[in-house]
Design goal:
By secondary structure, the protein is an alpha+beta fold. The protein has a domain of 88 residues. It is 38% helix and 18% strand. It contains four helices and six strands. Strand 2 and strand 3 form a beta hairpin.
Length: 132
């Protein structure tokens, strides 16, 4: 059975990207697949990777990482494992700068400001002293 209720997005940036996809008629699915990337000695999955979006028309997954630098490192590591274990699966990682450029292109600067303020983060707006 296919659910017709909207997904519960983990972050406002995911909901905003979904709105852009919808506006332009781009079919998408939210976190449809989970890829095991690490197993213990007994073969039990101990870590997996679930990209945020799947775009079926271009057979590509999209993962957003727009906030904390520690999460960026973790996602980069997971993506490296993903690419080694599943080389046939296409995944594009959107960093804060990519998402910021997309929001600016579509006139959503106020969204960036609101999300950054709500999260106490400067990574989306590009504000701050540049220290990492």
């Amino acid at each position: 059975m296919i659910s017709t209720s909207p997904p519960r997005f983990a972050h406002d940036s995911e909901a905003e990207l979904a709105r852009i996809f919808d506006y332009y008629g781009v079919p998408w699915r939210y976190e449809p697949d989970v890829f095991p990337i690490s197993w213990n000695a007994d073969g039990v999955v101990i870590e997996s990777f679930a990209p945020d979006f799947y775009l079926p028309e271009i057979d590509c997954y999209i993962e957003l990482t727009t906030l904390k630098q520690s999460l960026v490192r973790k996602k980069n590591r997971k993506l490296r494992w993903m690419r080694q274990l599943y080389p046939e699966v296409r995944v594009k990682l959107f960093y804060a700068r990519d998402f910021r450029a997309l929001m600016l292109k579509y006139g959503r600067l106020e969204f960036l400001t609101d999300v950054a303020a709500a999260n106490g983060a400067n990574s989306l707006t590009g504000a701050g002293n540049g220290a990492r």
